[in-house]
Amino acid sequence: MPTPSSNDFDLNDLHRAVFGNNGAPSMKVPTFQWRWLLLIPILWLLLTFMRSFVVVGAGERAVLFNRFTGTQPVPLGEGMHFVLPWVVKPTVYDVKSQTYTMAMTKAENNEQAGGANDALDALTSDGLPISLDMSVRFHIDPQNVAKLHREIGPREFDNPDYVTKIVRPQVRSRVRMVIAKYPVTTIYGKGRTAIEREINDRLRQLLIKNYIVLDEALLRNIRFSPEFQRAIEQKQVAQQEVERMTFVVQQADKERRRKIIEAEGEAESIRLKAAALAKNPQLVQYEYVKNLPRNVRTVITDSRTIVNMGEAMNNVPAAVAADDASQSSSANPASVPEPDSGAGSTTDGTSGATN
Fold first, then answer.
1. Of 137, 142, 153, 152, which Cα lies nearest the Cα of 94?
2. Is 264 a member of any domain?
3. pTM of the full structure
4. What CATH code is carried by the domain that includes residue 160?
């Protein structure tokens, strides 16, 4: 009798596998398979419950996309909301104010710039290049979040969001168009406010068409080429020198006018005094007496003579001394010696003989 090969079907093995060694059906089934099968519906129910509620935070709106009817026109406001799981897909949008910065400094740039220099380069109306740092503050229109979701959409995988699609290109384009209308002298001067106002007006009209409200566009910094920067410095130095010379000339002119006015005043004063003297000659004596010190006593003897009593009193002692000297000499006359009568005269009056 031939031996069965390994590929032949063995009925005995099948019988033992089904009914066991005793011939009765075997009811022993591994329990671990049932446990794993029970976890599947539990996880599915838990996931369904979690997808049934949407929590919308402060300053956010949730747009609902129904797989059968499409995007719902009215977004969900703040709070917790129930949605039909597996049928409705919510997308949360931030409607608070946001700031997008384009600058040379890498730390200030947004993530859309990739950490590179994101400053805005533009040309003025006279063809000079400038570099600008800008910050744009904006927010999504809460009433048109559903339209923004339908026409632009959120960021999903490699799909850029509305900032990259709308805000960034519109800002860079419109700023270049506005800068091209002005010369460089206006940009670094007082015209900067007018330029910033025009940029805000244009961007506000363009962004609102895409359901984005512009709060403010700020020109933070303007950089010129090194050559133009040196030219500006030289111009400022020359302008300061001109202003200094103008000030010196104005001061000299004011001094000249002051001297002229002073001379005219003196001439007018002299003329008035001459007219007054012609009418009243005694005015000279009055002016003389008025200008004397207070401790000087004077006496007007006539219309032409003014006696200073101080000088008269000083001369009195000298006159009195001269008068006393003359009186003394007349009362006591000086003695005169007698003339010599002869060589041989004696005191007794007899004359001696000469041998």
1. 142
2. yes
3. 0.55
4. 3.30.479.30
Count of positions (residues) in the chain: 355
Number of domains in the chain: 5
Range of the domain at 265: 233-273
Convert the pLDDT of each residue in 280-290 to its tens digit. Answer: 776 666 676 67
Are residues 104 and 133 in contact, defined by beta-carbon separation less than 8 angstroms? yes
Q: Look at residue 351 and tell me if it is in a domain.
A: no
Bridge partner residues of 64 (DSSP): 90
Alpha carbon distances (Å) from 246 to 11, 241, 253, 273, 279: 125, 9, 10, 40, 50
141 located within any domain: yes
Residues 46, 44: Cα–Cα separation, whole Å: 5
Q: Is 149 exposed, middle or buried (0-12, 13-18, 19+ CB in 10 A)?
A: buried
Phi, psi of 341 (to 5 degrees): -85, -25
Query: Is there a single domain that holds both residue 150 and residue 105?
Result: yes
Q: Is residue 239 part of a domain?
A: yes
If asked whether residues 151 and 197 sit together in one domain, one would say yes
| Amino acid letter for position 268 | E
Is there a contact between 141 and 213 (Cβ–Cβ < 8 Å)?
Answer: yes
Our measurement of the distance from residue 182's CA atom to the centroid of its chain's CA atoms, rounded to an integer in Å, reads 23
Per-residue pLDDT reduced to its tens digit, 169-208: 999 999 999 999 999 888 877 788 899 999 999 999 999 9
